[in-house]
Amino acid sequence: MSEQSPIGPVDSSQVPRFAGFATFARLPRIDEVERADIAVVGVPFDTGVSYRPGARFGPAALREASRLLRPYHPGLDVSPFARAQVVDAGDIALNPFHIGSAIETLQDEAQRFAAAGTRMVTVGGDHTIALPLLRAAAAQHGPVALLHFDAHLDTWDTYFGEPYTHGTPFRRASEEGLLDTSALCHVGTRGPLYGKRDLDEDRRLGFGIVTSGDVLRRGVADTVAALSERIGDRPLYISVDIDVLDPAHAPGTGTPEAGGMTSRELLEILRGLAGHRIVGADVVELAPAYDHAEITAIAASHVAYDLVSLLSLGVSA
Ligand SMILES: N=C(N)NCCCC(=O)O
Ligand SMILES: [Zn+2]
Ligand SMILES: [Zn+2]
Fold first, then answer.
1. Per-residue pLDDT tens digits for 198-234
2. Could you identify the atom of ligand 1 that is nearest to the CA of residue 241?
3. Which of 53, 78, 80, 207 is the most buried (most CB within 10 A)?
4. What CATH number has the domain bearing residue 130?
5. Which helix (H) or strand (E) holds 40?
6. Is residue 165 within 8 Å of 94, Cβ to Cβ?
7. Residue 51 CA: which ligand 1 atom is closest?
């Protein structure tokens, strides 16, 4: 970090939090600082979806819903924006008509952040985007451990013969050798599958599964202990599909499944990951057109805040 202390968010006791530009948590834009430790980056993209479209509007909705976030995280005992220079880097412009070129662009952009020494928390977009983000993470760190919070496996092979979709990123990532196969886990999985084979193939790729029901039965502490042990001190990428939450907690998403986790459970599990070597994270599948009273956008903004807070713990104070 530079000698100066980080530039923090706009002070909500001086400027009403409902006024002004909607950057994440009212943080400075990337062009307003010399260098950034952590960037929140919007990825408005939903060309990879199999059902309801609309995740392209996720970044804007998440930023709007983040105006009420405050600078101190009592659960982690950290002031992330004082400990690290956190910025909003705006949106990455991806070609909505060409999924291959969008994936390439995002990988290039992610590698530019990495080269600048900035870790990313991407917000919005459909789950397709995890693939180029994992490519960039693996290019920097080698194969990474992955915690994948999602109702879905997203290790399916193809849809309509197409390999790059929001249901297939982790199959491609595995084939490309981006993942440390000894440290992979889905969390919150539930809902109908195409067949038992889905689970067999997923297991063959090395994934463990903590289902939504497992979280209920085992509780948060046990779940965290199991995940922590699996990850160890490996470089860790965290991917959060907001549909991991029950539709009651996150109606604003493209492929909702009943029987999901509460936002309290998800946030508590994330907080339990403090101390791990997190190299990057995403919050995907927020589709505001199906949201009500910003329920999903608020949950997603809190998840992003927790991820930023976890990343800030890795910046020396
Ligand atoms: N990644 C998300 N949200 N959904 C994947 C669902 C794929 C399917 O339609 O079977
Ligand atoms: Zn997903
Ligand atoms: Zn999902």
1. 999 999 999 999 999 999 999 999 999 999 999 999 9
2. 3
3. 80
4. 3.40.800.10
5. strand 38-42
6. no
7. 9
Handedness of CA 107, 109, 115, 119 (dihedral sign): negative
pTM over 0.90: yes
Q: Do 237 and 134 meet the contact criterion of CB atoms below 8 Å apart?
A: yes
In a domain, 5, yes or no: no
Q: Is 152 in the pocket of ligand 1 (CB under 6 A)?
A: yes
Strand, coil or helix: what is 87? strand
The answer to whether 235 and 145 have CB atoms below 8 angstroms apart is yes
Top mutation candidate among 45, 46, 49, 50 for ligand 1, by most atoms within 8 Å of CB: 50
Domain that holds residue 113: 24-313
Q: What is the pLDDT of residues 74-127, one digit of tens each?
A: 999 999 999 999 999 999 999 999 999 999 999 999 999 999 999 999 999 999
Binding site annotation covers 31?
no
ipTM: 0.98
Report d(CA 287, CA 107) in Å as an integer.
23
Q: Is 198 annotated as a binding residue?
A: no
The answer to whether 136 touches 175, Cβ cutoff 8 Å, is: no
Distance 226 CA to ligand 1 centre (A): 26
- Does residue 11 sit within a domain? no
Tell whether 2 is covered by a domain: no
Spacing, Cα 165 to ligand 1 middle (Å): 9
Domain assignment present for residue 140? The answer is yes
pLDDT in tens, 264-296: 999 999 999 999 999 999 999 999 999 999 999
Strand order in the sheet with 207-211: 86-91, 38-42, 119-123, 278-284, 236-241, 144-149, 179-189, 207-211
Q: Which of 83, 88, 144, 72 is nearest to 120 (CA)?
A: 88
Q: Using the mean position of ligand 2's atoms as its centre, give its distance from the Cα of residue 312 in Å.
A: 25
Residue 243 in contact with ligand 1 by CB distance below 6 A: yes
For ligand 1, what atom is nearest to the CA of residue 127?
Answer: 1
